Each structure stands twice: as C-alpha cells, then as structure tokens.
Amino acid sequence: MRVTGSVARGLLVDVHSHIYTPRLVELLRRRASPPCISSTDGQETLRTSRDSGEGKGSAFGPQFWQRSNKVAFMDRHRIDASIVSVADPCLDFLPPEEAVEAARVINEELESWCLPPASSSDSEDMPSSVFSAGDARTAFRAAVPNSSRIRAFGVLPFANEAVPVAAVTSQLEAIHKSTSLRGAVLSTKGLGKGLDDERLEPLWECAERLEQPLFVHPHGDGTAPTSSADGGLFGLRSSGATLPLALGLPFETAAAAARLIVSGVLDRYPRLKLILAHSGGALPMLSSRLAWCVSQEADIRARLKHDVRYYLGQLYFDALCYGPEELELAVKIVGRAHKHRRGGPGIYGTPKRGSQEEQEEITAGARRFLFGTDHPFFPPLASESSESSAEAPIWQSASTNLQALHAVASFTAHERDLIAGSNASTLFGFS
Ligand SMILES: [Zn+2]
C-alpha cells in the first residue's frame, strides 16, 4: 500500500536526519578516498565510509546541506521538528589537532544552521497548515515561539588515541551551553578503540551529569571489502552497498551497544541517554542470545548488576526498521526489560495477548522509541519523482516508517504518539 501523506495525528519529530556543514564539506572535497566528495561533469558524489567497497555513493546536492531544503522535506511530510546530525560521525581522517578544531567549527556551523534566517518570519518557517491538525501541534508552537523547529546533535572530536578525552568532554560542555545543539552524535569507533574504551569514562560521566543525549550511529566500513579480491563478510557479487547498508550498519550498532553493556558502562552511568540508530540494529533480536553467552562467562556475570536484557530498558532506539512486525518485536523486547532486573522472575511466560500486562509492557517499550527518517539518504526513485509535477514526491523512506508505526495493531494512539514525537519532545526539550 502506498502512503500519499502523513498519518500522524500528534507531534511528529524526526530524530534521525542528516546534514553536512560547510567545513565538513570542505574537508571531504579535499579527499580522494571515502569519506569524500568527488566531482564528475559537474555532479558531486558523496561517498561515506561504507562506500569504500562497491558502494556507488550518493548524488550530493542541496538536500545534504540546505536548511530550506530540509524544512521543505519536513513540511511535505508534516514533520514538526527534526534533530539533525552529520552522517558518518567520525573525524579519524584528520590528524588529532585538526579533528578537535574541526569539531569546534562544525558545531558552530550546526548551531547557526538550526536557526531560521534572520529575514524569515514565523509563518515562513512554520506553516500554519502544519499546526492545524490538533492540540499537540498548537501547544508545540506555543512552546517554540521563535519557530526553531530544528535542533542538532553536535560532533565530538573522535579521531584516534592521540585526542585527549578532555577535548571530547570540553566539546560536550560547549554543546550543553549552546542554544540549538542537544547532545552529540557518537561514532562507534570512539577514540579508535570503540565505545567500551576505558578512556571514555569521563565522557559518560559528563553526558550523564549534563543530561546530554548521545546518538550512536554506525559507519559500515568495518564490513566493506578491502580489495577486489576480498569479498569481505557480504561478498562482492551484485550486492553493491546493499548488504553492508542493510546488515553491516545495524550489526555495527548492535556490537557497539553490546560492548557498552558488557563493559558495565550502563551500570556505572544508569541515567545516560543513549539512542541507538536503526532500532538498535540486531540487538533486540539477539539480546537473549547475548544474555545466554554472558551467563556462561563468570567474569562478565560478576561484573554486571543485572541480566544484559535489563539494560535495553535504559536505552533509546530510533523507530527506523521499516516494518510493523519488526517494530512491534523490538518494542516488546525493550518493554520486558524490567523482568531481567537482578532478582527478577527468572523463567516467565509472555503476557497473554490483549492483557493489561501486555499493554503495560508495550507502553514501557514505546517510551524508548523515537521516529526517524535517515533523510536525505534513500531519496525517491526516479519513477516516484515523476508521478506528480504539482508537488514534491513523498519520500517512501520516511512514509514507510510512519506507516509501520501506524500499522502495529497492538499499539494504541498513546504508544503511537509517544514514538511519533512525544518522547522526542521531552528528551530534546521541545516541551
Ligand atoms: Zn543515518
């Protein structure tokens, strides 16, 4: 079934939305290998880290850097607010000192990018038609009087081990003091050794103390073939970037989150606001297998306060999994996390279908999920673009996830509203 318009009734907030700032574009244009921006016959191509193998890259145009383009996308899909972030959030292609300076400049650019141009009036930036749908939008507009519908995750100077962690925490402190930035997008690579690196403890302490959300976003380069003779995990034959994109990125996120859990970071910093891209990747589906394997390792078992499944209830997830069954499953798995607290019920049955217990678990899980689109990746196909000359095409990448949210029969309007925008509105201070 095709979706031709928004089906959201309450607030709709996009927490997974990308942009490239001028300094980042300048740095990438200087490079010849991914991540880079190359130009052929006047057409620029963005190749992200995952495009180091057979990936063709993305046509690089205003949708990647122009604020008005982002606002038009939001209006077309009735998205009330967005939290934008740079894709590929690692600066490891720069020397340490340059990475620290680049993060500072990119954050300044993000800060000004979020704000409407001085000449723009409220009505231009926030069309009243968007807010005619209901009380939630009216209240939102009242709460955001300057029409600032866009916030951003800042960038941290994640490059390599030579970057002092104090440079990372001081950047997060600067983000905390800014007007439009809300937390940071985190590379799974950390300072070259991943997110369970002991050197990152001050970052977790700082993020928890300042209540700054951290968005864990993958790169996909770890599974890319290293040469034409090396098929890597996903092979080379005809799949192009598809398998690294579909499977590699989510596995990378799942591994990063599992490393945070088993290293005890979520025990030491239980109030961290970590958001996992792509619905946590494979983590929800594999969480009982992870728990089983941990149960066989005395060292890890002794280190953790709870069964690993408990920690899923401390995490946030974007709702970017493209299917209602997958979304429902992930929400239910996160919603049962409380059962895995140490001293919990042990062996238990799933809640009876339609029972109050089932609904309570679904609501608990839904409180941890946030709508996202991954715009401007996955643009409309050429056939979709030519359907209507009167209006810009609906991006199926956005509407598919919205449709999935509304197609989960076990969700009530309450759960749908939580995931569509209510959770994000609270988490990012829109309300
Ligand atoms: Zn993304």
UniProtKB/TrEMBL annotation:
Give the record's GO biological process terms: secondary metabolic process
* Stretches the record annotates as Disordered: 36-60
Entry annotated with the keyword Metal-binding: no
Q: How is this protein named in the record?
A: Amidohydrolase 2
Q: Lineage, please?
A: Eukaryota, Fungi, Dikarya, Basidiomycota, Ustilaginomycotina
Gene3D superfamilies named among the record's database cross-references: Metal-dependent hydrolases
Identify the residues that the record assigns to the Amidohydrolase-related domain, covering every copy. 166-336
Query: Source organism's superkingdom?
Result: Eukaryota
Q: Name one GO molecular function term.
A: carboxy-lyase activity
Give the InterPro entries listed for this entry.
Answer: ACMSD, Amidohydro-rel, Metal_Hydrolase
- Keyword annotations of the record: Decarboxylase, Hydrolase, Lyase
